[in-house]
Design goal:
With about 250 residues, this protein is α/β, with parallel strands linked by helices. The chain has 11 helices and 8 strands. Bound molecules: phosphoenolpyruvate.
Length: about 250
């Protein structure tokens, strides 16, 4: 059985007071669920979030991390720093990191290796741009993103990997991939992993969909057999919306 996961990426939103207020509201309204529920506040509020959720099943994860162990990387955060405040899962490869901060497949591959060496879990994000989809290249783009960053890993590492397919054209745009488009790509991703490894690994890895998931479309997207949950941006900033999406899973 694959884990069902609903994760909220808060991006560069919420002050400390706002973070605590949202976590209080989320904890109070959290429905009974078999799914893993995760939130990714900004770095500066991770410690407070971990403390705030000490007796909650909601897990706090990081939005990013650096590949180096330590050193002269001004403004960056290491795996050990995350672990030291109780964070053992990091989002790696979000399209905003790729687009605005120059994170290439090569850099992301290094980050993944470092996280795994530290025994952390990786939520690896990838997905095609609008032009790729329009030109029919979306499958090959996704395949190369996976290959370049993940397919050198040994098979045992895959128990620590969560995938988040996020078509860039659907992130923060209000435009969502249709449930059929999401299912088609998730099935393709599983087939690609089967070819690179085996069906055991492909069938075990959770593949989340991300891109304008809202309470109104979550049930239909999550009903698809290869969609194991969602990575949620905008709707994760509003407790009632995030809770409705958790209920949808
Ligand atoms: C995201 O940034 O990962 C995301 C899916 O954002 P949104 O839900 O706002 O499209």
């Amino acid at each position: 059985m694959r884990s069902k996961i609903v994760a909220g990426n808060w991006k560069m939103n919420k002050t400390l007071a706002e973070t605590e207020a949202l976590l209080t509201e989320l904890s109070a309204k959290l429905p009974d669920t078999q799914a893993e529920v995760m939130v990714a506040p900004t770095y500066i509020n991770l410690t407070a979030a971990v403390r705030h959720l000490a007796s909650s099943s909601i897990e706090v994860i990081a939005q990013n991390m650096h590949f180096a162990e330590s050193g002269a990387y001004t403004g960056e955060i290491s795996a050990d720093m995350l672990l030291s405040v109780g964070i053992d899962t990091a989002i790696i490869g979000h399209s905003e990191r790729r687009a605005y901060f120059g994170e290439t497949d090569e850099i992301l591959a290094k980050k993944v290796v470092t996280a795994l060496e530290k025994n952390m879990r990786v939520m690896f994000c990838f997905g095609e741009e609008l032009e790729d989809r329009k030109s029919g290249n979306h499958f090959s783009v996704v395949e190369s993103q996976l290959k370049n960053a993940l397919f050198s890993l040994d098979a045992s590492s895959w128990s620590k990997i969560i995938l988040a397919y996020e078509p860039v054209w659907a992130i923060g745009t209000g435009e969502t991939a249709s449930p059929e488009q999401a299912q088609e790509m998730h099935a393709f991703i599983r087939k690609t992993i089967t070819e690179a490894y085996d069906t055991g690994i492909a069938n075990k890895v959770s593949i989340l969909y991300g891109g304008s998931v809202k309470p109104a479309n979550a049930v239909e997207i999550f009903s698809k057999p290869d969609v194991d949950g969602g990575l949620i941006g905008g709707a994760a900033l509003v407790a009632d919306d995030f809770v409705a999406i958790i209920k949808a899973i």
